[in-house]
Design goal:
With 487 residues, the chain is an alpha/beta fold. Helix content is 36%, strand content 20%. It is built from 16 helices and 24 strands.
Length: 487
């Protein structure tokens, strides 16, 4: 903890396609400045990769856009989870990073799960590996590019990579580590029995140290300060994964449910107890505060809606009643259910069906899977009260149709926070915490109290008939996909 130091705090969100930086006055929570820079994602047919150097370049550009870089006293980075960054003996990337939504490691995930069985994985690690988890893409790299694997001297997650560029310290946090598959929410330590599996064979020395929540992990390196235009005494927090950053930015209390509507969709709630779900639907993550963050993720959310609207040449909100139409928008395969090779399904079309009905059904199909997963999360965390509002965040949260569809399908009150950059805000709260010693979630709640403006929708009776129709189609499509049939 660095007590009493003045200045602004910087929160970084290094997401799949862009890096966002917010500068916050830590005392009042006032946003002073912000910046944004994009980075490239490449790949097709299940491949999704980015050059880690592009993340660093984007970070510098985003900080420069704020115009207040020299006023920053502390910084923390939240970033996309699961990505595999392989470094050589000089700390340089050996190849492009394999991102969270890359599905090429599906056979490696199957082999890892078969080695122990899903129940053992859930109990030991907290989650059953799926193709997005870091352990599966390391096994994939060893199988498909053994030369690159042999040259690898250290492995980092995206936020670890940026934190190490800032400080020179090989460090991660428990939230992001819990999405690798080789760190345990039970023991709060790396799992030797995973690292020693034949498909993994990874020395623990190649992995970063796991820092405590809100630990001051270092001071910025002079070279990094010069690259980014920051002062040379900026202190750095441990950072975390993007979902953990958003939960921290919301200042979530245990049991409060969240749906994040972005390129992917996620459902989660902070919990005092770890989740253990052998079905693999719920990933039993840790959070950035010392608690847990059981979470379900889908690969297809807002991008699927935009794709359908684009095909028909209509606005994304130009919907009409879906009627009999059901859409399962699994354009990129799917993670929940775990069907990386699946494709999209459209059923119930009639001569009278119009593009707006298909678009409406795409919204419903994306949200229904998240709401079903949320029911399972709430059971895992001890039955979070159904009367609690459903918080919508992410790029889709500002859309009227997303809001109204979530309200109609869930039957719950819906809250839409005024703050949009919650991942970066959570990172900023962590940075403020290392300056003041105040808990990051308390800081985020204090900031929110001084900047009201959230929107609320009252509960309506849930559309159970529509949900049941979607569930029946999903069950049939899952059976066909499991048999290897294109739907």
């Amino acid at each position: 903890m660095a007590q009493g130091r003045g200045g602004l705090v910087a929160g970084v969100d290094s997401s799949t396609q862009a890096t966002k930086v917010v500068l916050i006055d830590p005392e009042h929570g006032r946003r002073v400045a912000e910046g944004r820079a994009s980075h490239e994602v490449t790949g097709s047919a299940g491949a999704r990769e980015s050059d880690p150097e592009g993340w660093w370049t984007a970070l510098g550009q985003a900080i420069a856009q704020t115009g207040r870089a020299r006023d920053v006293a502390a910084i923390a980075v939240a970033a996309q989870q699961h990505g595999l960054v392989t470094l050589d003996d000089s700390g340089r990337p050996i190849r492009a990073a394999v991102l969270w939504n890359d599905t090429r490691s599906a056979p490696d995930a199957d082999a890892l799960v078969a080695a122990w069985g899903p129940a053992t994985w859930a109990e030991r690690a907290g989650s059953v590996p799926v193709p997005s988890f870091t352990v599966t893409r390391w096994a994939w790299l060893r199988r498909t590019d053994p030369d690159a694997a042999a040259r690898t001297r250290s492995i980092r997650l995206p936020h670890d990579y940026l934190t190490e560029r800032l400080t020179g310290e090989a460090v991660t946090d428990r939230g992001d580590a819990s999405g690798t598959g080789w760190w345990s929410t039970a023991s709060e330590a790396y799992l030797p029995e995973v690292l020693e599996l034949p498909g993994v064979a990874l020395p623990v020395s190649m992995l970063p140290r796991v820092a405590a929540p809100a630990e001051l992990v270092g001071t910025i390196r002079p070279e990094a300060a010069a690259d980014l235009g920051l002062a040379d005494d900026v202190v750095v927090g441990p950072g975390t994964g993007d979902n953990m950053g958003a939960a921290l930015g919301l200042g979530l209390r245990p049991g409060e449910p969240v749906l994040s509507l972005g390129t992917s969709g996620t459902a989660y709630a902070v919990s005092e107890r770890r989740a253990v779900d052998p079905s693999g639907v719920i990933a039993g993550f840790a959070d950035a505060t010392g608690r847990f963050l059981p979470l379900a993720a889908t690969l297809n959310c807002t991008l699927a809606v935009d794709r359908v609207a684009g095909w028909f040449g209509i606005d994304r909100e130009a919907v009409s009643p879906s009627g009999e139409v059901v859409v399962l928008p699994w354009f990129d395969g799917e993670r929940t259910p775990n069907l990386p090779g699946a494709s999209a399904t459209v059923t119930g079309l009639r001569h009278a069906s119009d593009p707006g009905a298909i678009l409406m059904a795409t919204y419903e199909g994306a949200l229904a899977g998240l709401l079903d997963a949320l029911d399972r999360i709430e059971a895992q965390v001890g039955g979070a009260a159904a009367e609690l509002p459903l918080t919508l965040i992410g790029g889709g949260a500002g859309g009227r149709i997303w809001q109204e569809t979530a309200q109609r399908l869930s039957g719950r009150a819906v809250r839409i926070p005024a703050e949009r950059e919650l991942v970066a805000l959570g990172a900023a709260a962590q940075a403020a915490s290392i300056l003041t010693g105040e808990a990051g979630a308390d800081i985020a709640r204090r900031w929110a109290a001084s900047a009201p403006g959230d929107r609320a929708l009252e509960p309506v009776p849930p559309d159970l008939e529509r949900l049941e129709r979607i569930r029946r189609v999903r069950a049939a499509a899952t059976d066909l996909a499991t048999l290897g049939t294109t739907t």
